Amino acid sequence: MKYHIAALTLCTAIVPATVGHAQEDSFKIGVPVFLSGAAAGPFGEPEKNAAELLFDALNAGEVPAPYDSVGINGRSIVGTFTDEASDAAVEYRNLVDREAVDAVIGYTSSGNCQTVAPLAEELETFTVFVDCGTPQIFEQVVTDPKFLFRTGPTATPDAVGAARYLVDTGADLSRVAGVNQNYAWGQDNWRDFTASLEALDTGAELVSEQFPQLGAGQYGAEVSALLTSSPTVVFSSFWGGDLEALVLQSAPRGLFARSTVLMTCGEALFPVIAKDVPEGAIISARGPYSVFAPENELASWFTAAYEERFGQKPTYPAWKMAQAVLGTKAAFEAAGENATGAEAAEAFAGMEFEAPSGTVRMANANGHQAIQGIGFGTYKLSEDGEPGVENVIFYDAECVSPPADMTAEEWIESGFEGSTCS
Amino acid sequence: MLKFTAIMLDGMNYAAWLFLVAVGLTLIYGVMRILNIAHGAFYAIGAYICASALGAYYGAGLPQAGAFLAMGMAAVVVGFVVGLAIERGVLRFLTGKDEVLMVLVTYAMFLILEDAVKLIWGVNSYFVYEPYAYFGFVEIGGLPYQVYDLLMVVLAVVLGFALWFWLERTRMGRMTTAVVADREISAAMGINVTRIFSTTFVIGTIFAMIGGVITAPKIAITPGIGVEVIILAFAVVVIGGLGSIPGAAIGAIFAGYARALSVHLAPEFDLFAIYAVMAAVLAVRPHGLFAKTSGRKI
To answer: In a designed cystine with A104, which of A30, A71, A111, A120 is the match (CB 3.0 to 4.6 A)?
Structure first.
């Protein structure tokens, strides 16, 4: 009996020390993504999948070079996933104060990003926004960032690239209509797109501007309004279930047959209703992701590993999450072993790093905002039923992104001053 | 002319949908004085059940025409089971409690059911678009319109009439109307109020399920679809007057045409159109268009 007691005593003495040691050795990352609500399926799920895949693969040293070292600076990555659908400010503070994470990587909603951006600076925590399209983050909310980064492009390249693609492919722009969700994302997209059409001197007449409520689900009236205004081109920045419902309700009524429909988030339709998207629709993936990604070892590895583990190809939110995780690893390793968040942030500002989508340049917002190119193409199902694109045109980052010293609005209104398109 | 046609059709279609999702809510309030927030969750369950039922149906290689029967059966059977379970399992213990308490209870049930939906079906979207595309479209005044949407209007009229017939022309319906008028006197006259409550709640739940089932082929069935619906349904029944079936119909028509007019003539007001109508109606008639005056018991 006394041996048992001695063993128990020894265990209780050792176990906390072991746990404490393990915690010290791990690199803790808070990952807020949508785990509930309408955005969970199209965004939260692929983002969470990608983060888990990358954490596991990095810990096992299985990611191709230059990320073939274990974890981050040899420390094993431990992810703490939280639901972005809950109170963003409270959850962020929990991650920083209670969980004591080394970094936060996440956020899809522009509204949540606007809430968290000042907090990241206030709490001095290395934070990477994965998505959040609004350009306002670094133009208005945090104009002198120290700890906050966004590794994906803003919504501006979507709108500018869309306008350029329509012009370059000779689309009939005489009558243009838009259907966008009625909040900052939809309004910013439509504003940038129509301003780009004007800057490109297309002479387009805006015949219908629809702004249904986010999550409305029923778009019969909007489709009627689009059909009765006889547009030659319809632009939409819809995403998630709204995009899927719009396609399901407008395609049978002939909208795609009567007009050229461009959907900036169209690639996200691939895993769910690929067979119901009419061929010829113009789509993008909000950057050089998925079918618009370059061919490189990281892209091949990521696509294959994701498909093997989750049974389907990754959509663009998964690509953006993978990019954010790799950027974080690059930043902390560039800053050196035992680097603090502040040191990593200093190293990350203005950095170029490799991702499955190619080389990412942290070029804008004092080196805290990435710029990347964007591809557009017409949707085509292959003979074996695989969704894909043809007639692809890829626009370089400098062609569709504002320079570091201008806001998106100023830049488009200036007629894309300083842009270079190859 | 084309725009006028579109407004007429869109208003009618949206009104039919609003009526289908709101009529169960107003029925339950009218009889039981329960502002049932769980109604939104019932609608969502209806949509998910439709996806599962049709998935199994198509998986068995059965003909498309029978799919509509499967949809109807799914709504009635699941509506009956869920409605009866909640009424018998929870609400009967709270009969006669304050209306505010009932709002909190049904809100709690809404949250539980939302999580149950997530637990069963996960967070990814479901699609059952085949019934929506089955009938194709017709050109009405040059505007292509889905036959499914027109049939939804027919369904709303038929179900609305059936509900009216049940309340006004059947013995059970008349007893229900009596309970609405005075619960205590009805009980004293020998009416089984408990059974009336159960029946009413089950019928209201089935209507919510029908709303979800009929909408499922048009949308991406995703978590959270019940939230938006319950807000709209409340707006409709408040316009018409809480507890009034004709009120729900008129409220749905007001809201449907308000939305259609805003979409076609002033899209920037689309977000507020229905609520603007609600505010305008309440400014003139604070209890809604068809609210009944009630005497105070001494």
So the answer is: A30
B257 in A contact zone (CB under 8 Å) = no
What is the DSSP annotation of chain B? -HHHHHHHHHHHHHHHHHHHHHHHHHHHHHHH----TTHHHHHHHHHHHHHHHHHHHHHTT--THHHHHHHHHHHHHHHHHHHHHHHHHTGGGGTT--HHHHHHHHHHHHHHHHHHHHHHH-SS-B---HHHHHT-EEEETTEEEEHHHHHHHHHHHHHHHHHHHHHHHSHHHHHHHHHHH-HHHHHHTT--HHHHHHHHHHHHHHHHHHHHHHHGGGS-B-TTHHHHHHHHHHHHHHHH-TT-HHHHHHHHHHHHHHHHHHHHH-GGGHHHHHHHHHHHHHHH-TT-TTPPP-PPP-
Pick from A271, A311, A246, A282: which is nearest to B220 by CA? A246
pLDDT score recorded for residue A115: 94
Residues in chain B where the model's pLDDT stays below 50 = none
Residue-wise pLDDT for A266-313, tens only, equals 998 888 888 888 999 999 999 999 999 999 999 999 999 999 999 999
Task: Chain A: give the shortest CA distance to residue B65, in Å.
Answer: 19
A56 exposure class (CB count in 10 Å sphere: 0-12, 13-18, 19+): middle
Chain B residues whose beta carbon lies within 8 Å of the beta carbon of residue A276? 127, 129
What is the structure's pLDDT at A1? Answer: 46
Measured N-to-C along each axis, helices B99-121 and B39-59 cross at an angle, to the nearest 10 degrees, of 30
Chain B residues touching A245 at Cβ < 8 A: 218-220
**Which residue in B111, B218, B232, B269 has the most chain A C-beta atoms within 10 A of its own C-beta, making it the best mutation to test that interface?**
B218
**DSSP H or E run through A216:** none
